[in-house]
Amino acid sequence: MERSEIIEHLRISLSVVLNRELPEFSAETQILEDLEIDSIRFIELIMSLEDTLQLDVDPESLEPEVFQSAGSLADYIQTRLQQVDVAR
Questions:
Q1: Contact call for residues 49 and 13 (beta carbons, < 8 A)
Q2: pTM score over 0.85
Q3: How far is the C-alpha of 60 from the C-alpha of 3, rounded, in Å?
Q4: Handedness of CA 54, 13, 18, 26 (dihedral sign)
Q5: pLDDT at residue 28 above 90?
Q6: How many beta carbons lie within 10 A of that of residue 17, not counting itself?
Q7: SS3 69
Q8: Is the per-residue pLDDT at 30 higher than 90?
Q9: Given this model, what pLDDT does residue 87 score?
């Protein structure tokens, strides 16, 4: 999956979790600061990504820099998806 597709997927998932549209969403969007997402919503986002992308998130690999921006989270997701593909 391409990075741009992942960012669009993040936009859609976050729109659902936050119950509002995110028309200004891009790789530079700071998830925690710009969207003011709290810990419960963040857990909902991770669960949604696990379900919709068939992604297994390793909590130990979730360093704070992963959540700096939509782009950094997309990079993390892309790496995890590639690891799944290699394992198959």
A1: yes
A2: yes
A3: 23
A4: positive
A5: yes
A6: 20
A7: coil
A8: yes
A9: 64
Distances (CA, A) of 25 to 7, 17, 29, 63, 71: 8, 14, 6, 22, 10
Q: Are 17 and 45 in contact (CB under 8 A)?
A: yes
Tokens representing 2? 């391409």
Tell me the mean pLDDT in the region 3-26.
Answer: 94
CA distances from 49 to 30, 57, 68, 71, 79 (A): 18, 9, 17, 15, 14
- Write the burial class of residue 13 (CB in 10 Å: 0-12 exposed, 13-18 middle, 19+ buried): buried
d(CA 19, CA 37): 12
Phi–psi pair at 52, nearest 5 degrees: -80, -30
Chain centroid, CA 38 distance in Å: 14
What tokens were used for 29?
A: 């969007």
Nearest alpha-carbon partner for 6 in 88, 79, 83? 79
Q: Would you tell me how many other CB atoms lie within 10 Å of the CB of residue 34?
A: 14
